[in-house]
Write a structure and sequence with these properties.
The structure is a homodimer. Chain A is α+β, with helices and mostly antiparallel strands and about 130 residues long. The first copy, chain A, has helices spanning about 10-20, 25-35, 40-55, 100-105, 125-130, and strands spanning about 60, 65-70, 80-85, 90-95, 115-125. In chain A, the strands form two sheets. Chain A has a three-stranded mixed sheet with strand order 4-3-5. A two-stranded antiparallel sheet of chain A has the order 1-2. In chain A, a hairpin with a 4-residue loop joins strand 1 and strand 2. In chain A, helix 1 (about 10-20) packs across helix 3 (about 40-55) and helix 2 (about 25-35) packs across helix 3. The longest helix of chain A has 13 residues, at about 40-55. Chain A starts with 8 loop residues before the first helix and ends with a helix. At the A-B interface, helix 4 and strand 5 of A face helix 4 and strand 6 of B. Strand 5 (about 115-125) of chain A pairs antiparallel with strand 6 (about 115-125) of chain B, so a sheet runs across the interface. Chain A binds a DNA duplex (30 and 30 nucleotides) through helix 1 and helix 3.
DNA sequence: ATAACGTTTGTTATAATATAACATATTTGA
DNA sequence: TCAAATATGTTATATTATAACAAACGTTAT
């Protein structure tokens, strides 16, 4: 049975804000932005974020404690994320590279551990910051 | 000139605890453990952690806000980390795989961004937890 | 030796990030 | 239609991390 997931009110509001932002958003900055829409408490934000992550609509950029909309797998549940992060301007880009994905999906270490998902973050200098 | 880095008192104390632990340690759990040694404030811990990371002696497991000793590059500054994390027992292992390291070191995306370092975290089930 | 510099320490206060616990409402599905 | 699952609202609190300032220490060049 195909599950068509409809988002709840809070989830829609929060996804909308994250999608419209062109940078990763922090939970409390999201909270600030949605207070006029009736979402008053951190927990309401965190609960929506949790669900949106589970659905693959957004990702958490772990090293930055920030959240970005998924640009790659349209509406699919994505458990494999790769980001490039500029350490100067903090610009974050989700990388979609088939070869890399395939390589990582098939990676297995000596221990025989099964990997269900991964998160890879590259840190460096973006082309703009490299110039200046 | 080769710089032989000697650690300061606090740095030694904190590195010692992290090295002796067989699991990632949280900053405040480290703090609790070193209070008998005179380290009383969070900032003292965080400052030592920051330095130890810079020296490559320890790594931060970003998704867990926890710190582990570097098992791989003995005393070298390590900017390329790969961890496997069991989502059930939370066991964390640093992975040292030459092929993977080489692959990631040479990776470059379309944008031309220069990567100085990366952090990769695999999540899954370790062999022990798989059995039960 | 000592001045100058960078690093480390100690300390208090506070900011930023995230979850617990409980009551109620809403949606979904057999 | 009623039971189960999901979502909401709310208050309180836990956890993680940094700001700001003053003092001590360590290294190096004179």
């Amino acid at each position: 049975m195909v599950q068509i997931q409809t988002l709840s009110k809070n989830q829609k509001i929060i996804l909308d804000i994250i999608e419209k932002a062109n940078e990763p958003l922090k939970a409390y900055s999201i909270l600030f932005n949605v207070q006029k829409k009736g979402i008053k408490a951190p927990l309401q934000v965190y609960r929506a974020l949790e669900k949106l992550i589970k659905l693959g609509k957004i990702h958490k950029v772990e090293s930055r404690n920030a959240f970005v909309a998924c640009k790659n797998s349209n509406c699919e549940i994505s458990k494999a994320t790769v980001f490039s992060i500029c350490e100067t301007c903090e610009k974050v880009t989700e990388i979609s590279n088939q070869k890399l994905s395939k390589y990582l999906k098939n990676f297995h270490d000596k221990t025989g551990m099964t990997y269900k998902k991964y998160n890879l973050e590259f840190y460096g200098l973006c082309t703009t910051c490299k110039r200046s």
